[in-house]
Amino acid sequence: MFTGIVEGKGHVRRIEERPGGRKLWIDIGSLAAGLKTGGSVSVNGCCTTIVELDSRVFATELMEITLQKTNLGDVTVGTPVNIERPMKMGDELGGHLVQGHVDGVGEITKVTPLESSHVVEIRVPRPLVKYVVATGSVSVNGVSMTVAEISGDRLTLGVIPHTWDVTNFSEFKPGVRVNIEVDLIGKYIEKLLPDLWQGMTTGARPPAQ
Questions:
Q1: Does residue 118 form part of some domain?
Q2: Which of 37, 124, 150, 159 could bond 118 through an S-S bridge, CB–CB 3.0 to 4.6 Å?
Q3: What is the pLDDT confidence band of residue 93, given thresholds at 50, 70 and 90?
């Protein structure tokens, strides 16, 4: 589990294409401290498993389905990626609950620099639109963001200078694909609502799972 508070950027150092997937080596510098083989780390908002760890570089293996559902199939050697280590019980929840299970890939449609910030517009996959609400939370490349506005399939974000500098948002331009994870709470409400509504109208209890 993560919070969407990205700790910094790593850089892809090596890529090995494999049948049905690929293996990435990522240099994360001092963020490697405390990590261990078999542990998890969020890469662009995608929860990955550390299969090798050597000082500041770790390796992770990505299955074909991961490459299809995320933008990790787009990265090349040198690409900056957002890194977050998993939260621990008792840690401050500075963002929102992020699983690292990417729901789909969006596309940057517009980036507007302002005097001290940036406004970013993203086209999100149609099936995810219903889970995105104004002033609600969404994870973009693993960064917990507040939705400033949602219109059709376009969401708008206001990005402060710190976020712009610490994450790979500074690489954003029209056409760049980004990982989107919608708020977990909304998905659970959608799944439970039919049973809850049935119970309210008939007096029956929801069936045991």
A1: yes
A2: 159
A3: confident
Q: Whole-prediction pTM value?
A: 0.89
| Averaged pLDDT score across all residues of the chain | 92
Tell me the C-alpha distance between 31 and 19, whole Å.
Answer: 30
- The answer to the question of residue 99 being in a domain is no
The stretch 22-40 carries a mean pLDDT of 96
Q: Which residue has the tokens 């799944």?
A: 191
By the 8 A CB rule, do 176 and 141 touch? no
Contact criterion met (CB below 8 Å) for 198 and 142:
no
Per-position DSSP letters for 178-205, written without gaps between them: EEEEE-HHHHHHHHHHHHHHHHHHH-PP
What is the enclosing helix (H) or strand (E) of 164?
helix 161-166
Calpha distance 105→44 (Å, rounded):
11
CATH number of the CATH domain containing 125: 2.40.30.20
Q: What is the pLDDT of residue 189?
A: 87
CA atoms within 13 A on the CB side of 133: 7
